[in-house]
Amino acid sequence: MLECQQLTKRFGERLALDALDLRVGGGEIFCLLGANGAGKTTTINLMLGFHTPTSGTVRVGGVDPAADPHAARALLAYIPEQVNLYPLLTGLENLEYFVQISNGRRYSRDDLMGYFTQAGLSSADAGRRLGEYSKGMRQKVGIAVALAKQAKALLLDEPLSGLDPKAANEFCSLLIALKERGTAILLATHDLMRARDIGARVGIMRAGRMLAQRDTTELTHNELEQVYLDLMRA
Ligand SMILES: Nc1ncnc2c1ncn2[C@@H]1O[C@H](COP(=O)(O)OP(=O)(O)OP(=O)(O)O)[C@@H](O)[C@H]1O
Predict the structure, then answer these.
(1) DSSP reduced 3-state for 147
(2) Coiled-coil region(s) at which residues (predicted)?
(3) Distance in Å, CA 127 to ligand 1 centroid
(4) How far is residue 102's CA from residue 73's CA, in Å, rounded to a whole number?
(5) Angstrom distance (rounded) from CA 119 to CA 137
(6) Which residue range is the domain that position 58 belongs to?
């Protein structure tokens, strides 16, 4: 569903991504790990068609996002670290608006409420203004958008940072539920423990390069941490 082959991105002299190979299939959670500046956000931005590759290819469901960003984004949902929604609209109005601009469809209030509650938000919160929502609740509106537009793939950039342990746990359970519905999930995170728990595979990046990809069933938490630290030191 998500595929990069020898994907390279330069910003002037800076090599942000260096011949990245990556595949994420439907029903799989792949976690991208790496220090600040490793190239995780650049990878996601290339999938969204926000940047064009310097060389190599990126495909979303077979679509080249640089050539046809609208077609690629129609297949995707994206949850950045800070979900930017309209603070003066209610949670449900935000859901309605963002789904409509992404696929042009209008949903009944009952359908919208169904997606809202499937994303772990209560019907009592639907009428509250977004500006009153916590970070975890705003992230869940992002999940509701993914559910409503039936996104084939979900891209998440540091969604767990700043969430308390209970909210992070709930959020990870939602990701697992989406995976089980067949969604391909690419999650950039610094949280090695949760990456190990929810990812089928992890990829460890440094300075634009994918240094290792591991099946999480092969590694304990401590082993993953050791592999990560060894690669960061090398
Ligand atoms: N628009 C841009 N113009 C110039 N350089 C950029 C741009 N976007 C990213 N970079 C550079 O590309 C490299 C990779 O950045 P990127 O944001 O992809 O890293 P990251 O792994 O997401 O880091 P973090 O964990 O801090 O979010 C960095 O050196 C960054 O400064």
Answers:
(1) helix
(2) none
(3) 37
(4) 8
(5) 9
(6) 2-84+152-233
What is the reported pLDDT for 101? Answer: 83
- Quick one: tokens of 121? 């938000």
Residue 104 lies in a domain: no
State the residue for tokens 């959020």: 171
* DSSP category for residue 90: B
Ligand 1 atom with minimal separation from the 158 CA: 27
pLDDT bracket for residue 82 (50, 70, 90): confident
Token pair listed for 197 = 């728990």
Measured in angstroms, how far is the CA atom of residue 16 from the centroid of ligand 1? 6
| Residue of the CA atom closest to atom 2 of ligand 1 | 11
Domain count, the chain: 1
Distance CA(11)–CA(196), nearest Å, equals 31
pLDDT for the residue numbered 81:
82
Sheet holding 29-34, edge to edge: 76-79, 153-157, 184-188, 29-34, 201-206, 209-215
Please check whether residue 146 lies inside any domain of the structure. no
- The three-point CA angle 191-197-202 to 5° equals 65
CATH code for position 222:
3.40.50.300
* pTM, entire model: 0.92
